[in-house]
């Protein structure tokens, strides 16, 4: 840091009193400008320059399958929209719901408002680089006491009229303003990333609720088919009872099996209504007026390219937000340390002042005052030290938050990669179990028709077949939700080779 070059210490020690004179102020203003220039040349921003904290990044994902041909990892900017990643599922109804999120979601609207606040704070901080200019017009009459001994104005009424223009400016000698701007900019960037985090989360929640709802639709369709089959089995058993082949207990078991399936179907309506209401809230519509009719949906999860772990630091908006808040905390350390150094305040006032209103606009009424003031704290009982220590601790905490966010991101990716891989294997085996249970049920019904087995054996086989079919549907649904969670964990966007770069 260079030494301060001071031409006239007398002008720095105190602010001159207002003087009324006809002498031109140019010489004094030039002196003040020379002082300010010398101080600015000698000044520098105190505090540590920001360096992004180091994190341990693995070279590959442990659970990742080989990347499918035709896909590549995206590298979006932190505050760029994550894009319509939901289109990869090829569901027109889902696309229509997702399109409503950005427009109608109140959570997103609040995040947009918070981003506007953060950007306004940046503008406010930047205003510190410039002088503050004010103007005033005063008219006053003052009567002085007659009991003031030997005072020239004793007992007199003195009018005073004045029109003044004043300017004050604090040069950024030690980086207090620049560090404040740096912190505000970093916080604004973090707010932009927060907005993208909310958007990504809202879109993912819509997709999760949608696939859960469609999973219930698939289960309901399965139960509808099962109820038809159980009704046919009940009719068969009733006919056999009527001709004396089957017993009354066989009829009761068939009735019980049918009623149980009907109860399961009705029970699905509770969850479906809740998912439907959740989707309505997410897209900004009243749950009372929103309705999503039952429909078939594809339960073939798309291939999600995970890329390499280092991409995650660029793709995840929550990681970007945590890193930007670390930069802001680092700048606050500089702001705290700048308080140890004196402040230079440059001020100038000029205008017209007169005891007679008629003389206010004449040349002899001119008045001006110009000069710097150097202000410093000599003793504060350790307040500045405590503030600096607090800022450093805040920075250390933000570094820990950033590293924890990165670790959590890697965990979420690995969790969902593992879920997709394991669920795919489990679903394949479960579909084999469904085929086997359907064959067993068909054989059991044939044996029952010829009287070689009792209806209790049919009931057991029917229950096993229904359980296996519902488990298969549920595994398909879980694969879809795991794929959505993987997209969210990866940051929400990738490109296919057919997309324009």
UniProtKB/TrEMBL annotation:
Q: Name one GO cellular component term.
A: plasma membrane
Gene3D superfamilies noted in UniProt? Outer membrane efflux proteins (OEP)
Q: Which GO terms describe its molecular function?
A: efflux transmembrane transporter activity
* One Pfam family recorded for the sequence: OEP
Transmembrane regions listed in the UniProt entry: none
- Principal localization reads membrane
Keywords from the named record? Lipoprotein, Membrane, Palmitate, Transmembrane, Transmembrane beta strand
**Where does it localize?**
Cell membrane
Q: Could you confirm whether the keyword Manganese appears in this record?
A: no
Membrane topology is: Lipid-anchor
The highest taxon in the source lineage is Bacteria
PANTHER family attached here? BLR4455 PROTEIN (PTHR30203:SF33), OUTER MEMBRANE CATION EFFLUX PROTEIN (PTHR30203)
Q: Which family does it belong to?
A: Belongs to the outer membrane factor (OMF) (TC 1.B.17) family.
| Entry protein name | Outer membrane protein OprM
Q: Which organism is it from?
A: Pararobbsia alpina
The organism that produces this protein has a lineage beginning with: Bacteria, Pseudomonadati, Pseudomonadota, Betaproteobacteria, Burkholderiales
């Amino acid at each position: 840091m260079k030494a301060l070059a001071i031409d006239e210490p007398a002008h720095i020690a105190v602010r001159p009193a207002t003087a009324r004179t006809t002498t031109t102020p140019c010489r004094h203003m030039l002196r003040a400008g020379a002082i300010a220039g010398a101080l600015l040349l000698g000044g520098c921003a105190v505090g540590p320059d920001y360096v992004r904290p180091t994190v341990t990044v693995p070279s590959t994902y442990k659970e990742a399958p080989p990347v499918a041909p035709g896909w590549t990892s995206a590298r979006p900017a932190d505050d760029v929209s994550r894009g319509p990643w939901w289109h990869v599922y090829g569901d027109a109804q889902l696309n229509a719901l997702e399109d409503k999120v950005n427009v109608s979601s109140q959570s997103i609207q609040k995040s947009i408002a918070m981003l506007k606040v953060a950007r306004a704070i940046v503008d406010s901080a930047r205003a510190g680089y410039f002088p503050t200019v004010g103007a005033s017009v005063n008219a006053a009459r003052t009567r002085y006491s007659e009991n003031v001994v030997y005072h020239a104005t004793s007992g007199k009424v003195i009018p005073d009229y004045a029109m003044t223009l004043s300017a004050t400016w604090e040069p950024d000698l030690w980086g207090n303003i620049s560090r404040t701007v740096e912190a505000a900019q970093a916080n604004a960037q973090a707010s932009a990333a927060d907005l993208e985090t909310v958007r990504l989360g809202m879109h993912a929640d819509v997709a999760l609720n949608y696939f859960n709802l469609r999973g219930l639709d698939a289960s309901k369709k399965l139960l509808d088919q099962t109820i038809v089959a159980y009704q046919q089995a009940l009719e068969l058993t009733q006919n056999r009872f009527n001709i004396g082949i089957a017993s009354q207990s066989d009829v009761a078991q068939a009735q019980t099996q049918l009623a149980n399936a009907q109860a399961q179907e009705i029970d699905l309506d509770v969850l479906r209504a809740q998912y439907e209401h959740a989707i309505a809230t997410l897209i900004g519509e009243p749950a009372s007026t929103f309705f999503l009719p039952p429909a078939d949906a594809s339960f073939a999860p798309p291939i999600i390219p995970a890329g390499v772990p280092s991409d995650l630091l660029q793709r995840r908006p929550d990681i970007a937000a945590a890193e930007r808040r670390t930069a802001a905390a680092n700048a606050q350390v500089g702001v705290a340390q700048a308080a140890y150094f004196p402040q230079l305040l440059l001020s100038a006032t000029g205008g017209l002042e007169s005891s007679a209103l008629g003389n206010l606009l004449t040349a002899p009424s001119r008045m001006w005052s110009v000069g710097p003031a150097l202000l410093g704290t000599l003793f504060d009982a350790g307040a500045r030290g405590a503030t600096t220590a607090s800022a450093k601790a805040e920075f250390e905490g933000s570094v820990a938050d950033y590293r924890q966010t990165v670790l959590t991101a890697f965990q979420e990716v690995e969790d969902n990669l593992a879920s997709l891989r394991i669920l795919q294997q489990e679903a394949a085996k479960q579909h084999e179990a469904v085929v086997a249970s359907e064959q067993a049920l068909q054989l059991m019904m044939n044996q029952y028709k010829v009287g070689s087995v009792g209806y209790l054996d049919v009931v057991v086989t029917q229950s096993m077949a229904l359980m296996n079919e519902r488990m298969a549907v549920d595994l398909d649904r879980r694969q879809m939700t795991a794929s959505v969670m993987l997209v969210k964990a990866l940051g929400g966007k990738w490109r296919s080779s057919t997309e324009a770069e």
